Task: structure prediction
Amino acid sequence: MSDKWRHFDASGAPHMVDVGEKPVTRRWARASGRVRMTPETIEEIRQQRVGKGDVLQVARLAGIQAAKRTSEWIPLAHPLAIEAVSVDLQLVDPDTVMIEAEVRITAKTGVEMEALTAVSAAALTVYDMCKSLDRAITIEAIRLEEKGGGRSGMYVRPDGPTS
Result:
């Protein structure tokens, strides 16, 4: 069976990849995404006047928590003992919250899914906390920006960071 389809056994059934023989290496991944909303909603976040609390800090905590629980969200992801997670949220442009997450580990498998899950959960939290102010919020461009470690080595998104 091709390496390309390692999440399926010989009969085509999904299964978790056996990483037992892989070497332990230092690995990391960085993902990003954005949440777009009205400038008025951005100003409410900036002034910390959203009724549910400090949107950026709650979303940061949601992202960190989600990264640690990725294997509960993604069926074939391995449960990992993550060593570090950072989630950064910034108000940019007149209508955008930019989110970036970085996850680090020393393990047999990478943390791309953990970084992507952190960004996703942070974005969903921003949406949840602001939806009463703005029904047209959109979550956009969640993507892997770069990763390092493991057999496949370094990856950097060729088209640069999310704009």
In short: Residues 63 and 121 are 5 Å apart (CA to CA).
